[in-house]
Amino acid sequence: MMTSKQYLPLYVLFGTCEKVLSTFIDLEFLQNPALHAPKIQAILMLAQSPAAEPSLLRLLPSLKVIASGGVGIDHLDLLFIASLGVKVTNTPGVVSDATADIGMGLLLASARKIVQVLSGWKLQYLIYHRFTGSTLGIIGMGHIGYKIAQRGKGFEMKILYHNRNRRAVGATYCENMDDLLRRSDFVMLAVNLTPETTGLIGQRELSLMKPTATLVNVSRGLVVDQDALVKALQSGTIHAAALDVTHPEPLPRDHPLLSLPNVLITPHVGCSTYQTIRRMVEVMVENARAAMNGLPIPNEVKSQ
Amino acid sequence: MWCSRVALRRLQRVAAASLNGTGGLTSTMQKEMSTLPRVYVTRQIPPEGLKILRESGQVQFELWDSDDVPVPRKELLQKVKGVDALLCVLTEKIDKEVLDAAGPNLKVVSTMSVGFDHLSLEELKKRLLVCVCVFLPRGIRVGYTPDVLTDAVAELTVALLLTTSRRLIEATHEAKTGGWGTWRTLWLCGYELADSTVGILGLGRIGVAIAERLAPFKVKKFIYTDVAPRPELARAINAEYVSMDELAKQSDFLAVCCALTPETKEVCNKNLFSKMKKTSIFINTSRGGVVNQDDLYEALSSGQIAAAGLDVTVPEPLPTSHPLFTLKNCVILPHIASASYSTRGAMSALAANNLLLGLRREPMIKEIKL
Asked: What range does the record give for the signal peptide (chain A) (predicted)?
């Protein structure tokens, strides 16, 4: 069983990895960076912590690898890190099932108004739209998008998708994202965050969606123009939203998204199962070991 | 496939179709009203069913005009006197007292539900009617509403399973109330469906529909228990028949889908929970009476099982002071599994059509054979 700390320290010991990596706690390092810094070869990073700031990285002359947990690497300046001769790894695939499950969980909890019912809303005031047999539009057809498509099919949903490329996934390709937005009852965002996908869903895209449609986001908060989303929800341009990711995380307590009745927000729990977290850390450690020992690195992220 | 959308839509169309195309009543018909069979409807059911009764020209009916408050017992016993047919919902116990109060005219009981544990089938069987024209004894005809709600119930069961296993209620609460700080490694961790064993207690239409929806979540194995093996249904979902004990021992997720009968009453008790895994999730969308709630509370609070999701309880509604409400690892919904306009509308229409067919001595669309 792992130990965990509020702010994940740089060089962490997890269960079986004792023999592989040395352990220092955050506090020790901060108290005496000069003593510890030269020995550090790997950074294990969870939830973008510790931040890979230049001020930190420059302190670590022996650093060989930053092993990030999860699949997103939008928080890392890949070019800068590569210029220091440091490798970057992530854990694709490992988190896909858990994240797809959260996507479906948010979709279903939103569609069946579970949180509203528990907050005391009377059934006669809740508007239900059909779920089984409805149309699910998935934007981003990577590992996670694909698994969401499979799960949607179990509910006889018609699956549309938009992606840079076509894939053989047994779903209907929409080359034009507008087309997907117009036709979908549920829109699921499963893209990476890149300059191209930042603000992908804005006021225009939301206005193309059906007024009965629900937007679900399990990718990154910045993929959505949050201010436009608030306006769209308040005005009934779309019916509801369910978000596992926002910008920032956490949202400020008084953010309008947190008080809209037709919005579900979870605090980025996409990977949060005991099984997935354990596997994710195991893969992070494997990645780090390989880099430290000069072996081929399983999940290296190249800076292009 | 049990719940193929085509088959269900067909059934829903049949259920929703008015049996008698003509609307409105002519003055002649109004004169004949007093001789029309009398029907009592125990709740303000969705308009589809009431429209069918009204426009059939076959019946006159009286209604308890509330959609969320059940008819008081005294009122029910008064209103059923001499009726020919009764359309009820699951909050009314149709037992000896009601049947006696209704008297010998009662020919049809139509319930707007798939469960019929509130109907005393023994008592219904006993009632013999002697038809004036043909001296044949016959019992009261009983209609119910399976199938039209299978999709809705299966969806809600999976929704509840995910909500419970991924702690969505806690998570949304933390997001809204300031518990949301920097992400922590094991915060709000739940249990995943991938590579899990899903156990179904009572394999019927709904159990199969649930399994069909869970299969793409990378479930490793489906197992089920029932009074006897159900090979046809099991084949559809590749499920293995096991004993109740094995169901408890092997299931990572245990979904209760059986009818409430004397045999299944409180079958989910400490005997079952003590055999389950510490990491297991218990889901009940069948009937509250299948669970011993005190034993469930013990099991949840002591960590014998990880979490539970309930759409049904005893009583309904469960008083807010009930200890189960104090548990973070227990999600309780107010019986919303069939709640969607289209489903409840279809149930209402089916119940009305069953009633009219019963009065016409024709086969009902969905009938319980006594």
From this structure: none
What are the DSSP calls for B143-166, one per residue? E---STTHHHHHHHHHHHHHHHHT
Interchain CB contacts (distance < 8 Å): A and B: 163
* Cα–Cα distance for residue pair B108/B53, rounded to 1 Å: 14
Would you call A239 a catalytic residue per the annotation?
A: no
Q: Does B7 touch chain A (CB under 8 A)?
A: no
Cα separation, A26 vs B83, whole angstroms: 79
**Contact indicator for A149, A180 with CB cutoff of 8 Å:** no
Q: How far apart, in Å, are the Cα atoms of B156 and each of A244, B160, B206?
A: 20, 6, 11
What percentage of chain A has pLDDT greater than the value 90? 66
Which pair of tokens denotes residue A169? 């996934």
Question: CB pairs under 8 A, 24+ apart, for B20-23?
Answer: B20/B55, B20/B56, B20/B57, B20/B58, B22/B55, B22/B57, B23/B55
CA distance B222 to A223: 38
B175/A contact by beta carbon, under 8 A? yes
Long-range contacts for B120-129 (Cβ within 8 Å, ≥24 apart)?
Answer: B120/B93, B120/B94, B120/B95, B120/B96, B121/B368, B121/B370, B123/B95, B123/B96, B123/B99, B124/B94, B124/B99, B124/B370, B125/B370, B127/B99, B129/B104
Domains and CATH numbers, chain A: 27-93+273-301 (3.40.50.720), 95-265 (3.40.50.720)
Residue A175's region, left for phi above 0, alpha for psi from -120 to 50, else beta, is alpha
Say if pTM beats, i.e. exceeds, 0.80. yes
d(CA B310, CA B100): 35
pLDDT value of position B126: 82
Q: Report residue B190 as tokens.
A: 């739940």
- A266-298 pLDDT, tens digit per residue, is 999 999 999 999 899 889 989 999 998 889 999
